[in-house]
Amino acid sequence: MNINKPGLFFNNMTGALTGELIGEKKAKIGDLRGIFADEVSRLAMDQDQLAYHVQYYFPVAEGTEGGLFFGNTTIYPGKVGNEYFMTKGHFHTKGDRGEYYWCIKGRGMLIFMDRDRKTWAEEMISGSLHYMPAHIAHRTVNIGDEPMTFGACWPSDAGHDYGTILEEGFSARLLEVDGKVTLVPVSN
Ligand code: M6P
Ligand code: ZN
Prior knowledge:
The chain is mainly beta. It contains two helices and 15 strands.
């Protein structure tokens, strides 16, 4: 009978994944057109500046029913205008799929939005665990001065629907207003 050594490691302190089949995705300021409110400020920044990066483990092909994906995201500190660095955010393509996030380090905020465009946020601090129910868009924000890292686990057939967010946005944005982190409704 074989007893195998693990081939995959998750660092509890840093969130880093090491081992076979780890993929990586980087989001630079230049990649985030249409995400932040202040497009003039975004274009004035170094387009190669890294806003966040994702490491992921896909043990099965994307779209496979019944599997689970695992990843981490690190969002760097910074702002575009007065809006904190954040992920693109997405609904799941298969809308009835949920997800877990947990904060590893840094100070963050998780923004949720339902299909009626009702938006709310939850603080992310080291050890906080966040369940995203089905049919809820989710976006994460770094509100601190250090990189913010969180882990994620989601179904392998969930998929990312970025299009809806690009077209309609979230109905609120996390801005620094008078030195305070404020969830500001989007006027339209
Ligand atoms: C988490 C997971 C990933 C997602 C990443 C970045 O790690 O939800 O599926 O890709 O955050 O978020 P986004 O894809 O919205 O930029
Ligand atoms: Zn998701």
